[in-house]
Amino acid sequence: MAQSMDNVTGRYIRQRSTPPAASSAVGLAGVFETLVDQHRQMGEELRLISGMEASAERQRRWLELRQKLLSHDRAETLEVYAALDGIDAARLMLQQHRLQVGELETAIRELDATDPNSERWDSQSRDLLALFVDHAQDEETSFFPRAQQILGAKTTRDLRERYLTMQREVSHSVG
Q1: What's the CA gap between 165 and 2, in Å, rounded?
Q2: Which of 5, 61, 131, 175 has the least CB density, counted as fewest CB within 10 Å?
Q3: Residue 174 CB partners (closer than 8 Å, separation 6+)
């Protein structure tokens, strides 16, 4: 990653105290409204888990959330961002999205490789929360409005069901 996780966490603490809310994405519809709702739910779950004491319950919740995070990102990439492939106006957005998803997946792998009873796990879960919040904010305020404009209303509506179907399919492979 280009920057240390400590820098990311510091930036998060200075810039944000809550995950993006659906209201930050005014005017989004179809698949983008669904994605914003999922961001809100996953952000709340990640914040809860990051604040929990080490326990079997925290580990169970983490494994469930991990599956949601990964299936969300993979289905989003395979359906939503794939619909933008080859469109010049979306090229930079697609590059930024790939970079951010790579950082999130790296943070998830690092958390998976850490003893869940350690203080390091607590720190890494907060780092993941910071990355997630920054990523969701970028998507909701920049990527999604632009993608919706590029794709148009009909495609945006049609992508919702395709995204949800893909998310269910990939959910089984990320567990």
Answers
A1: 34
A2: 175
A3: 66, 67, 70, 71, 74
Of the candidates 141, 162, 159, the one whose C-alpha atom is nearest the C-alpha of residue 27 is 141
Give the CA count within 13 Å in the CB-facing half-sphere of 139.
Answer: 31
Which own/partner contact pairs does 45-51 have at CB distance under 8 Å and 24+ positions apart? 46/19, 46/125, 46/128, 46/129, 46/132, 47/19, 47/129, 49/125, 50/122, 50/125, 50/126, 50/128, 50/129
Give the global pTM: 0.84
Name residues whose C-beta falls within 8 Å of residue 3's C-beta, 6 or more positions apart in sequence: none
Q: Match 């999604």 to its residue by tokens.
A: 144
pLDDT tens per residue across span 138-168:
999 999 999 999 999 999 999 999 999 999 9
Domain ranges for the chain: 5-16+27-171
